[in-house]
Design a protein that fits this description.
With 221 residues, the protein is of the alpha/beta class. It is built from eight helices and nine strands. The structure holds adenosine-5'-triphosphate and magnesium ion. The site of magnesium ion (MG) has 4 residues, from helix 1.
C-alpha cells in the first residue's frame, strides 16, 4: 500500500519544490521507492522546466514525465486564474485518478501544493480550493516556512487554518535557516504557539535534508 504526504507552505516561493526534492532524495537514498506528484502547476512551458522536472532530476527519481503533474499552465498565476485565461480547469476526478496512478508505481508519494495554504484551484461554475485536493488525497501535511522575520505569524496562521479544516499536520520545516538568536527563537515560538514540531531546518543551498530517513518515512500515511 502506497503512502503519501502533502507539502504546503506559508506562501508561494517559500521553498516547497526545493525542500520536496531533498525529501524525495533522502527517501530514495535510504532505499525507498519514492515518487512525486503535483496536481496543478502554473508558470512553466514544459514539465522538464517546472517544479516537477526539478524534483524528478534533483531527487533522481527518473519518473515518467506524464505522471508528475495533472495540469500545467503557462501563466505564472494561481491555477484558477490560469485556467480562466487558458482553459482546461482542474477536475478533481482526474487529480484523484492521476494521484492513484502514481501510488501504483511508488510506495512513498510526496505531493506538492500550489502557492500557500489558501490557493484557489478552480473558480468558475465549480469552486475548488487547495484544501479540497489535500482532503481528496487523504494524506497529512508538512508545512514549509521561512526562517526569518514574520515567520511566526505566517506559520501559525497556516497551521491554525489547517487545524480548522481538519487536516492533519505532521510538522514544519524551516527553509533558508541560518540560525542566530532570532531564528532560534522563531523555531521555539512556532513550536510553542502552533503546538506542532519543527522537524527539520534546511540551510541555504543545502544538498541534503538533516532528518532521520526512518522518521521521515514514518510521517507518510
Ligand atoms: N534552501 C534553499 N537554498 C537555495 N535556494 C533555495 C532554497 N529554498 C528555495 N530556494 C530557491 O528559491 C526559489 C523558490 O523556491 P521554490 O521554487 O522551492 O518555492 P515553491 O514554494 O516551490 O514555489 P511555488 O509556489 O512556485 O511552487 C527557487 O529558485 C529555489 O531554488
Ligand atoms: Mg514549487
Amino acid at each position: 500500500m502506497s503512502k503519501g504526504i502533502f507539502v504546503t507552505a506559508t506562501g508561494t516561493d517559500v521553498g516547497k519544490t526545493y525542500v520536496t526534492a531533498l525529501i524525495v532524495k533522502k527517501l530514495r537514498e535510504s532505499g525507498l521507492n519514492a515518487g512525486y506528484y503535483k496536481a496543478a502547476l502554473s508558470g512553466a512551458d514544459c514539465i522538464a522546466e517546472s517544479d516537477a522536472g526539478y524534483v524528478n532530476k534533483t531527487a533522481g527519481i527518473n519518473q515518467e514525465e506524464n505522471t508528475l503533474i495533472s495540469y500545467l499552465y503557462k501563466n505564472a498565476v494561481s491555477p484558477h486564474l490560469a485556467a480562466e485565461i487558458e482553459g482546461n480547469p482542474v477536475e478533481l476526478e482526474k487529480v484523484k485518478a492521476d494521484y492513484e496512478r502514481v501510488c501504483q508505481i511508488y510506495d512513498y508519494v510526496t505531493a506538492e501544493g500550489s502557492g500557500g495554504i489558501i490557493c484557489p484551484i478552480r473558480w468558475d461554475d465549480r469552486h475548488i480550493l487547495l484544501e479540497d485536493i489535500i482532503k481528496l488525497l487523504g494524506v497529512p501535511v508538512v508545512v514549509i516556512a521561512e526562517s526569518g522575520l514574520g515567520t511566526i505569524n505566517s506559520t501559525v496562521l497556516t497551521t491554525e487554518y489547517l487545524k480548522a479544516k481538519g487536516i492533519a499536520v505532521k510538522g514544519i520545516i524551516l527553509n533558508n535557516y541560518t540560525g542566530g538568536k532570532m531564528q532560534e527563537d522563531n523555531l521555539e515560538m512556532i513550536e510553542e504557539i502552533s503546538g506542532f514540531p519543527v522537524i527539520a531546518c534546511v540551510k541555504p543551498d543545502d544538498k541534503d535534508i538533516d532528518i532521520d530517513s526512518k522518521f521521515l518515512a514514518g510521517l507518510y500515511e
